[in-house]
Amino acid sequence: MSADKPTVLLVEDEAAQREVLAYNLEAEGFVVARAENGEEALLLVEELVPDLVVLDWMLPNVSGIEVCRRIKSRAETRNVPIIMLTARSEEGDRVRGLETGADDYVVKPYSVAELMARVRTQLRRTRPAALGQVLTFDDILLDSETHKVTRQEKPLKLGPTEFRLLTTFMEKPGRVWSREALLDRVWGRDIYVDTRTVDVHIGRLRKALCQHGGDDPVRTVRGAGYALG
């Protein structure tokens, strides 16, 4: 998973369709992982924990509906939004897809522009900062587009790693992040960083957030990790 750009897992067995969608998703600024069948999709979901899955209903061997069910049954991936693509327009199938945990449903043939809009809608819910939105928590305001942070309307100086840490916390206030989860989200999976490095940067973030006074909003959860608020 990229530290800044959202990762979309695209699961589509038709090569031409897969490449058209991947091209458009990449043009929107997303990192795209591709899978052509259900087994490959499930392996990639476990490995990457993507920010969103675009999933074709009709897949060889393991069906899209089964892939959806398995993703939503695991605690680590339960909250990953899934958009199902299907040629079936019958209402019963749509209900079945949604009951299995799909977050949205696009019937083929669809316009690529419509699918991109739905992808952005789902990511706005789960990764708002990646789409340039302003995040707020108590008296802290983070503008992900201008990379500016203020507290009590006073500007804060944050390094790039502290900015990404704060973004991660502010996208999901109250959620407890383990050091390993923070490493994956903030540093990226491909980079080896010692978990103690997380503690060092959390210390810097705390210092930065309190540079004009105020309580430390970052909470240490013993044996589990860190949370905002």
How would you describe this structure to a colleague?
- The chain is 41% helix and 21% strand.
- The protein is an alpha/beta fold and 229 residues long.
- It folds into 2 domains: 7-126, Rossmann fold, CATH 3.40.50; 130-228, Arc Repressor Mutant, subunit A, CATH 1.10.10.10.
- It has a 5-stranded parallel β-sheet with strand order 2-1-3-4-5, sandwiched between helices.
- Strand 8 (148-151) and strand 9 (154-156) form a beta hairpin.
- The longest helix is centred in the middle third of the chain and has 15 residues, at 112-126.
- The radius of gyration is 19 Å and the shape is elongated.
- The chain starts with 6 loop residues before the first strand and ends with a strand.
- The relative contact order is 0.11.
How is this fold's topology laid out?
Blueprint: E1 7-11, H1 15-27, E2 31-35, H2 38-48, E3 52-56, H3 64-73, E4 82-86, H4 91-99, E5 104-107, H5 112-126, E6 134-137, E7 140-143, E8 148-151, E9 154-156, H6 160-171, H7 179-187, H8 195-209, E10 218-221, E11 225-228
Parallel strand pairs: 1-2, 1-3, 3-4, 4-5
Antiparallel strand pairs: 6-7, 7-8, 8-9, 10-11
Helix pairs in contact: 2-3, 6-7, 6-8, 7-8
Q: Short description, anyone?
A:
By secondary structure, this protein is of the alpha/beta class. It is 41% helix and 21% strand.
Provide key terms for this protein:
229 residues, alpha/beta, Rossmann fold, Arc Repressor Mutant, subunit A, four-stranded antiparallel beta sheet, 21% strand, elongated
Number of strands: 11
By CATH, the architecture of the largest domain is named 3-Layer(aba) Sandwich
Form type = elongated
Rg calculated over all Cα atoms: 19 Å
Spatial strand arrangement across the major sheet: 2-1-3-4-5
Q: Give the CATH topology of the largest domain.
A: Rossmann fold
- Largest sheet, strands/sense/barrel: 5 strands, parallel
Helix coverage percent = 40-55%
Q: What distance lies between the first and last C-alpha atoms, to the nearest angstrom?
A: 25 Å
Instruction: Please identify the top-level CATH class of the largest domain.
Output: Alpha Beta
Number of helices, where a helix is a run of at least 4 consecutive DSSP H or I residues: 8
Fourth-level CATH superfamily of the largest domain:
Response regulator
